[in-house]
Fold each of these.
Amino acid sequence: MPLPSPPKPKAGAKLPRPIERAKEQEILLPTTPAPAIVLREAPRPTAKPQKQRKGPRRLFVLDTNVLMHDPMCLFRFEEHDVYLPMIVLEELDSHKKGMTEVARNARQTSRWLDSLLSLAGENMDKMTAGVALDATGHSAATGKLFFQTSLLIADLPMSLPQGKADNQILAVVHSLKAAEAASSKAREVVLVSKDINMRIKANALGLSAEDYQNDKVLEDGDILYSGASALPVDFWTKQSKQLESWTQGGHTFYRVKGKQTQDWRINECLYYEQAGEPSIYMRVTELRGDSATLKTLKDFQHVKHAVWGVNARNREQNFAMNLLMDPEVDLVTLAGTAGTGKTLLALSSGLSQVLDERRYSEIIVTRATVSVGEDIGFLPGTEEEKMGPWMGALDDNLEVLAKNDTTAGEWGRAATQDLIRSRIKIKSMNFMRGRTFLNKYLIIDEAQNLTPKQIKTLVTRAGPGTKIVLMGNLAQIDTPYLTEGSCGLTYIVDKFKGWSHSGHITLARGERSRLADHASEVL
């Protein structure tokens, strides 16, 4: 049945290393300190502009794991200077071999360093005074890069051995701090490391140490964009004098005005639910100044609007199905805890558009192959057979969809199952680079275990007529070194919110079983 309308308007990596002993260490130090200037915090990829704070120019000493985590980190410190100890270059050289992400990042870092040095020339005076970081075209990086060019003596506590790379870096920071304190234009020396134990040891020695924050899309106090908002109780009362409405293509459109529209985003879902009044669900289709155009949504909770035998069971699932079935929405991201129906909604919507509407040629399913426990080892067979054990969720949902067809007999269900299997292809992400998907419905499961770089690689595979659905649960991140604020799912939700051809919904209510719902709450 059609949705009720509102009241009509009125007339108007480095592992912790054991601590044993220490000796005097030889390190290198730039001899020419840079002049003090106004400080700004290192940029972070957030939607809000960063606040500037005043202070002296800082000198950041980078640990090896930062460079192997993000090769572009050299250019992320704006006007501040960057210092690389010699042991860091040695560790980069030892990790450059292999096909892993760490090895690739180590090689890319070496390429950036070679580019900077080639532009600086072979003049040793330039090396001593620092290499300009904006020489490669990164205009935001106005500081300088320093290498070790001279020998100095540094003392560490007797409990720290000199042979450990971490301790050698700590000795460098210790000597830099002493040298800067004696300078007339002293800079604050800060160690930047992804190694928690490294930062703890630095703090124990009285040295400043920070985590590398540039890879975090959201801060701890931020909340991920949910994709849905509630309208206030007096929304229709305030809009009654200036509300415009019209009908087009079976949907009702409303043009509203007010300050609240500035908080909305394109394709954000809105709902009005009040006791004793008809509920209404809409989506923002246009924003212009302080006015917004809202479009009523199709009620997929009604049995006659079932998609491949599946109905939405709650408000958020209804929002998700509207985004999944809209051909104008090219990218849909679904987040939610276990049992909220992410895979079933994506799969039923895909089958309907592939087999019934012929909008896409086939469904391609892939996922991050990250184990919850220990790896089970080598898997024999073809690419699809190797991916089989990872696709248990796909098989479970196909079984649910097959049971929904109660009119067909056993032979009919078997034929339908064969037809579905012929239109679903299981692919590994390892072979995605260089491909272009034309007119495909691409489902990427467990997206919370992907890095932002992997997410970019997958999404840029989309050709004309392709729709991509990313799903994940931020509470189940199994990839080491990824967090809720730095994983690929959070990254793409934050970057694509407000784009006219993308949408996001966070599914809140579990629909798997009462046991699964209770386990998600209490465990």
Note: The CA atoms of residues 164 and 248 lie 70 Å apart.
Amino acid sequence: MKKIFLNFFLILIFSTNLSFSNEINEIKIIGNKRISNETIIVLGDIKPKQNFTNKNLNNTLRKLYETNFFSDINITLENKILKIELIENPIIEKINIIGIKKKSLVEALKATMSLKDRMSYTEFQFNKDINKIKNILTTSGYYFSSIKVTKEDNIEFNSIILNLDIELGKKAKIKDIIFIGDKKFKDKRLLELIASEEYKFWKFITNKVYLNKSLVDLDTRLLQNYYKNNGYYNVKILSSFAELDGTEGSFKLTFNIDAGKKYYFNELNLELPDDYNKSDFESIDKLFKSLSNKEYSLDNLNIILNEIDQIASLQLYDFIKIDVKENIVDKNKINFNFYVEDSEKFYVEKINILGNFNTLEEVIRNKFIVDEGDPFNEILYNKSVNEIRSLGIFKKVDTEIIDGSTSNTKIINLSVEEQPTGEISLGAGIGTTGGVVGGSLKEKNFMGSGVTLDTNFQISDDGVKGSITYAKPNFNYTDNTLFTSIKSTNQDNLSSSGYKITTAGFSLGTKFEQFENLFFSPEIDFTQEDLTTNSSASNSFKKQEGSYSDFYFNYSLFYDTRDNSFNPNRGNVFIFNQELPLISSDNEIRNTLRFTKYKSLNDTKDMVGKASFYLSAINSIDGSDVRISKRTKIPFNRLRGFEKGKVGPIDGGDYVGGNYAAAINLSTNLPGILSSFENLDFSYFIDAGNVWGVDYDSSIDDSSKIRSSTGIAVDFLTPIGPLSFSWSLPITKHSSDKTETFRFNLGTTF
């Protein structure tokens, strides 16, 4: 503000002295020590022998002040001599940030500062940088930090050393997360939805337990989207605020929610320009009919817009925009009118990307659906920006559209603000089947290339597992994700069953969307397996002792029509996997099918039924026996009421699994039971399954019999972590099966 006033004052003075033009015969520059006369003449856009007018003066003053090289500028023109008197800003010799031990944080703070070493110092810019640092520290949870600034001036060399002594203080911990107002949903569900977590002393790795403005903003968006996807069209997060608790450095994080009432789609209409072929948009009418009288959902609204966009692109309606107008009728129904209009015909001249200091530019450009030279399509432009935001590697994404060099072109300026993209997690659990400890280290933007690098491990009673996965999105500009992984497992059952299985391998594959909601993922997989036994092992295990090499081609089909991946109310999930041997010791083929359907069971849609089917089969194509380590079993969570792995064929006292396994699961939540308990959910289930088939020994009873059970499951969000337990009553079983009535699992993160 001071600089603007000074500029205005100087211009006002000289406008009275230079109300006419004068030719410049000589230029005198006084006061410059570091910056040469020639540089000043170029920076001020001064040309000898030119007629110097008021306009030229204003232009020179503005350009010289914009360089930040000078604190004061005085210009006079007498007797055709242009006299420029300057006071140079000091040069920054060094910026020292002390008091912070973490080098990465120091580097991050320096990167956000506009002022750097060897740049000209201005008080105005320095104060802006101090405010930036304060905001970053607050955003990172350091609400009690303080900054003490000292300056060391060197008058002889007109330089300055800036010392920033930062005391971080304790991080602001989230003691409690509270939801108030007309929130409709239980606290348990909302806590599972948001990113922030309550602080516990054992959570020493995650940063989500510290108060972070960016994370709270994310929580607010997650809550809004969740409510809007469940019919609450007018939901308002009235406030999200942190209140200092009596405990030192602790806050209560409160979300005040006004969900309002549920709304439903009523009439949906599409208005097209007269010269459009309405038959091109017949699929939109079908979509409208399927949504009429259905619960309002923001995702469904986006599906409509995407469908219109796809049709417009296929039919070459390049210059369009969509205006959506809604009208509430009958108190809780909404009419939507989609107006498709021809937009002005502009082309994209250039796309400028700013702020990506670490991220490669191609990572961002790959998400642009519109490219330089393409017609400017507002729908595709907005979709491109959302795609960039969805990468999850930028704290902020801002855009600006300006006029291009010609009347029919536009320039897109996209500015990003980067954020840390690494995640580290550690978890533990204990249950009726034993304990487990696991962890992962994940980087979502490895080397700034947009690559995801994920390392994880798990230690349990069954053994040790570990893997490293490298995933490259949009490989070779194909929109396909290329992934490769290295894996290793060690299953040590020498003391209990007399055998040990060690595997190591790697895989290379890709994943892409073949059709809408249908993903195809092929891969090649190489695995080396070693099976060792001792004297207590069964004859079957001893017979198969040795080393095996397998080279497989695997693929999977994944089809998902759920309305929401988190607590869905309706929709289906279909997954099919097949493993085909290329070079293998035993040449087994495995087929696995999973299907799950969700459906609301009452008008309020708080009671949701779930039906799922599981089928797995493994057989050798050359008639040889299926290796025992590859035989199939029913997944633990699909047959409650029975001990893990303790159903099916038995060989020498060992449950060896079968060639076939199948399960059917029916369940529903029970929202009416103890509904006032915010952290408690009940559900009712019926499980049925079977494991059968023994190809390597016909004398073994394959115990083919439908096992079934029914019971009640409870999910409780404890202060330690989520606790789930079930009480089961077996209905049918084989005489050799081992049953269990009670099962529980307790987990937490660190």
Note: Confidence is low (pLDDT under 50) at residues 1-20.
Amino acid sequence: METNTAELIDNLRRSQAENGQVEVKAAAGGFPKSVLETVSAFANGDGGTILLGLTDPAEGLQPVEGFNAQAVHDASVEAIRSKITPRPPADIHIEAVEGQHRIVRIDVLPGDPTQKPYYIEAHGMYNGSYQRVGEADIRLTKYEIDRLLENRSQPRYDEELVSEASFKDLSPTLVSAYVARLREEQPRVFAALSDREVLLQARILRIDSEGREVPTLGALLAMGSYPQAFFPQLMMSVVVLPGEELGEVTEDGRRFLDNHSCTGPIPSMLDEAMGVLVRNMRKTSTMEGLNSSGIGRVERYEYPLEAIRELLVNALMHRDYSPGARGSQVQVELYTNRLVVRSPGGIYGAVTIRDFGQPGVSSTRNSYLASILTDLPDPGTGRLIAENRASGIPTVLRALKEAGLPAPQFADRLLYVQVTLMQPPQGASSTEQKTAPEDKTQQATHSTGKHSADAVEPAGADASLDGLSERQAGIVRGLRAQGEAVSTTYIQEHWGRGASRTSITNDLRRLVEAKLIVPTAPPRSKNRKYRAA
């Protein structure tokens, strides 16, 4: 909703300063050329308002003597229409304020993402494109402009050939799981092919200019034994901090309570990152079902594991993999009051933060990598790594709401996308008990070694799962990895392997009887969920 001019002026007088969405210029000598920089910045960002004919906010926003509103208005219309490319969405009009003093107001709307950057034509795209940072108009860097230009077409960096790598650099465990999935889903295409032929047909392996079979960047990231041998910074760092800000230290001078570099293919990075967060998050114990079934304490982490996993998957799948971003890793920071996930590159496509969580809203920067991850099962649980069905953010929103937590805070910059989950409210009821994580002084680590996906425990290694079907064993492993109770619907969607609701219900009944899983409510309760025993 547009703020009226009188209210804008009142707000600026109180703050005595401009801000990221309002610029004030005296324009005593006519149309200021610097207005073009501000228009470019607003159009390339979230929009904003320019007021011409008033003194600086620090001087009280007083009317400028001799200001010719009509002349400045006409010059503004001509300059903005003819000197900025493409033409920005702007409304320019004259208003009377505080009596009869006339000023020029320019409202610039956010530009079309597929048309950005908006730039001063005389300076060229790479010297005349700006963004708003606080009160200043800052020239965009080449990297930032290149990211905006990507919105006009589909990036293909994830399909680049890695000529230094070969079939031997792919994880046999992950390749086997991927090939089995393709044969199951598309038998007409893949059933009669060898594993290598399947990878060639699926374009995981491709022929380079020298006739060699080499993997793509996306394939190496998804299924490589150790992709960081070729791209050291394409990993995920997880740090646990002792306070609410970077730089705070413990009494003995430590900056981090835990510091881990998660490497290996994407499934391994996800598992490692989840492991670091699980062992460092506080847990809340809730007594449930005592009046009917005798079921007692249910433990929940301070942030829902389901929401965290979705954010980590999104960060790895949608991050920028262009050459200019390959020196940056996905960053995860666990503070005492929040969890932050930051991935290189801004939001891709015509989607904005305002669209997040809306039905059907999706924009995939790395469509090739996403297609691999949607057909790649986790060897430990059988759960597909990603869905890519515009369900990630809605899942996060739902999980946070069910946990009684605030909605996530999103920040979109051309250099990164950041998501922040806030800590739950302090204090617990009489049926809740906060449990601190394990002693972090004994778990502070910094991993620099290799992490291979081939180290995944084989399905038959756990004697407690003997006699179970593959689907039942997958449900148990999934619940153990999940760490918190989930619904039958969740189990069916993530570990059901396409089975019907009746089959999943029968599986759960048997697993409860075998004391491998525990229900959280009576059989007929709509709140009944299951967790690992």
Note: The first helix runs from residue 5 to 15.
Amino acid sequence: MESACLETLGLIPLVQDGRWPCAFINQQLHYAADNVCDHRSPINGSSLCGYSSASPQLVADAVTKAEQAFKEWRIIPAPRRGELVRAIAVQVQQHKTALAELITLESGKILSESLGEVQEWLDICDFAVGLSRQLYGLTMASERPWHRLQEQWHPLGPIGIITAFNFPVAVWAWNAMLALVCGDSTIWKPSEKTPLSALACCLLVQRAMADFPDIPVGLVQMVQGQQTIGELLVADRRLPLLSATGSVRMGKAIAPQVAARLGRCLLELGGNNAAIITPSANLELALRASVFAAAGTCGQRCTSLRRLFIHVDVYDSVVARLQAIYAGLRVGDPRLSDVLVGPLIDAHAFAQMQQALAAAQAQGGQVLVGGERVMTDVPANGFYVRPAIVAMAQQTAIVHDETFAPILYVLPYADFDAVIAMHNAVSQGLSSALFTQNLLEAERFLSAQGSDCGIANINAGTSGAEIGGAFGGEKDSGGGRESGSDAWKNYMRRVTNTINYGNTLPLAQGVKFDI
């Protein structure tokens, strides 16, 4: 077991009988005796010891404890709740490098990206601390004399959070830090591919909470396991909000179940994101942004660039430059400073990539570069691939699907109205980008007639969002919004109040009811 970052984070002593804890409930660790799975790093297949799923009883207990903690936490003033989040940020900053190294070890992303992910946790802490004094309501004019109307926001309840492997820390932090300042407790089901990153997060929160004896211990609960564990959270009526990040398929399974119990969903799902390069674009900027968006994180971001529309006047030159850049991308051990592309998460991801490439070729596409497994100058037992560029004459069925791998489909276009229609033709609507120096094109892209995505950028790539803006997409991308702006309202309930400060009782709309 590769232990440097694990030791720094205090994880090594937690291994019992060759397995990690399956749950963190009220700051107590729980272990399962059976169904132990071997947890391995995607970098080289090295064993990180075993882990197992929490039992249904442990999941139910975690929700019960979170519900109890919520009832205490909701009455603590929001600025005091913000002080806890500030203390969490101190712990994160002190352990930033070690946590980033663990993220790289479990997810395979390059260290620079992992450091950026931990920075997202720090950034959302900053945002949440300020927010703790800005949970504003409204005052509205009343039609009745000696009356006023007001709107308040109150804590919602225990929040269920389900996250994916590609951002094992940041997405949980977006939800959990806002939920905490909003007065909620949380129950987290992390990806089974990155259980140690989740455990490390819980320990950092525990250390921060040690200096707050006046707050309930059950604010942050965590249960490990496969899909069945997430399904238990989805079905639990005690969770008024279920925030889930994952595939479109997962979202379509979760949404009706939560709706059936009249709960709320916050879904952040697949992307199939596109960018458009116009004739006036700064091509150097567009190329750099497109390569990072398409090949960064080995194409395993929900905001990764999948489709690139290039105007016919610059198509040949742009594609030639892209091929040259792709051929020179350093693929290898993500812990090395000169590596830009680490491994795919596992064998299944590699198989999916190969199936997509075969389908693209069968549908008339031409693989211009990449797609093959890299076997030299990389650690053994990892699924390293050369990012692929595929030329397509049109958007066939495979282009409409999102493949979670570094495949970039390039398509020519001649008419701006037509390319907007092609851009919007897929079922997903997460992130989009336009590269242009033409003001009219830029404003059209950002208008109601332009991109139909939740994120629309000008002269910036599809990935790498800042926490200040609300993050999320439309259509099959789920419709949820996390992180900045007013996403905090997801974690609260709105209450409208009427206050009569007079001695009479006039009724609204002029209704008369004298007794």
Note: The longest helix spans residues 111-131.
